[in-house]
Amino acid sequence: MKNLYSIAMVAACPFPANHGTPAAIREMSQELARRGHSVRVVTYPLHDDIAISGIAIDRVRQIGRSRKVRVGPGYQRLVFDLLLVFKLLQVVRKHRIDRIHAHNYEAALVAALVGRLTGVPVIYNAINTMIGELPSYDFIRPRFLAKALARLLDQFAPRLADIIVADTEELRGFLLEKGLPSDRVITIHSGVSPEMFARGDADKIRTQFSLQNARLILYAGTFDAFQGLDYLLAAFLAVLAKFPDAHLLLAGGTINPAHQRRIASAAEKLGIASQVTITSATLDQLPDFLAAADVAVVPRPESAGIPTKLLNYMAAAKPIVSFAKSATILEHNKNAHLVLKVSADDLAKGIVELLAHPERARDLGRNAQALIAGRFDWSTIAEQIEIVYARALGKKNRANEPCRRRSLFAPPL
After folding, report:
1. Residue 307's closest CA among 327, 332, 321?
2. pLDDT for position 409
3. What's the whole-number mean pLDDT along residues 77-95?
4. Which band of pLDDT confidence, cut at 50, 70 and 90, is reported for residue 254?
């Protein structure tokens, strides 16, 4: 008989929300709840209108007037992160939590503090690096300060957890290079719900945007600078030279208006605005957008973790063109077209190749979809997470270990 746990998922982000990390937390939490565990998500007051089942949500109180769901750092989030400490401490004590599972760097810091105060073991889910994202937000200036803080967080935050779950082998290697012992860093991939993409209405999207006869290239994700949309826009200009009937559809789940204006301006300057559509896509609409696409693109130059959009593309059996370092779980010419050199020209060549050879493109998409079962589906992932929970020991379970003086931020045993 398996052990059942009372889990506090610490989500230092809006939740639920229609973009990568919150989506993964929601699906992971619901799957663990289906398997009999008690799951409470401790999070911000901000959220999108997305259905949730089987889990409880404990929110910090609203501070400030803005209730918009945004991606990236901000002063409001700093206040929410401070409040998370007190909320998590309250939840752990009131609901007899025996595992804390933290997502995002801020959550790792919050969880580490509460874990030290309560003796509850902390699992940190690592899906990115700060050096790969924080400087791109322009929240901290000058840029060298953002890079310095990012390197400090990469060195410091993960080691506060008892066990670190890394999204990819590449991310695990990054953490090991920071000096973390290999037995504390475990690779468990992010997941996707394949049933969500079993059906999609392509005609609905193509009719809505008058794209019935277009060769449709899709990007579905946020419009943050690190996502590489400038590469995609420049690549699309080259694609149009080969296929004048091509159309680029940028579908954002959580859209920052400033980012949208920047992308629209860039398309205008390139002279391609009439063949680029920028729109929002709810979670319910996402399968339809993917069904409509001829090619789906990941233009992010490098990602330490697995982009959620990549898993969605795979589940929908879409032909994928991606920079190689953002799709390390895939193989070139087997289940995706991977672009080694980070350049708009090379990205364009990959897109043109798949548009020119639709049969090959469909084969790549089907092969990518075949990888999901037994590897990237949430049932498989939840089984692996349960093993991690069983390994994680709180202070009370370490009573027989040699006594040693420990500071609050000493590495966990």
Report:
1. 327
2. 36
3. 95
4. confident
Give the Cα separation of 339 and 22 in Å (integer): 28
| Cα–Cα separations (whole angstroms), residue 154 to 9, 187, 245, 383, 384 | 21, 17, 45, 28, 25
State the amino acid at position 324 in one-letter form: A
pLDDT at position 73: 66
| pLDDT at 201 exceeding the cut of 70 | yes
What is the C-alpha to C-alpha distance for residues 180 and 99, in angstroms, rounded to an integer? Answer: 21
Q: Please provide the DSSP assignment of 3-65 as one string.
A: ---EEEEEE-S-SS-SSHHHHHHHHHHHHHHHTT-EEEEEE-S---S----S-EEEEPPP-SS
- Buried b / exposed e over 87-110, threshold 16 CB at 10 Å, is bbbebbeeeebbbbbbbbbbbbbb
Cβ proximity of 12 and 110 under 8 Å:
yes
The SS3 assignment for 279 reads strand
**Of 150 and 22, the one with more pLDDT:** 22
CA 394 to mean position of chain CA atoms: 28
Q: How confident is the model at residue 130 (pLDDT cuts 50, 70, 90)?
A: confident
pLDDT tens readout for residues 170-187? 999 999 999 999 999 999
Output b/e per residue, 237-255; b: 16+ Cβ within 10 A.
Answer: bbbbeebeebbbbbbbbbb
Structure tokens at 407: 């500071």
Residue among 206, 270, 213, 265 nearest 237 (CA): 270
- Does position 398 have pLDDT exceeding 80, yes or no? no
- Strand order of the β-sheet with 215-220 is 276-280, 246-252, 215-220, 295-298, 320-323, 337-339
Give bridge partners of residue 99 from the DSSP assignment.
Answer: 7
Which token pair is 24?
């993964």
Using a 10 angstrom Cβ sphere, with 0-12 exposed, 13-18 middle and 19 or more buried, the burial of residue 125 is buried
DSSP 398: G
Residue 298's nearest CA partner among 268, 319, 271 is 319
State residue 72's pLDDT score: 63
Flag whether pLDDT at 405 surpasses 70: no
DSSP 341: S
**Which residue in 384, 395, 404 sits closest to 121, CA to CA?**
395
Identify the helix (H) or strand (E) that includes residue 147.
helix 143-156
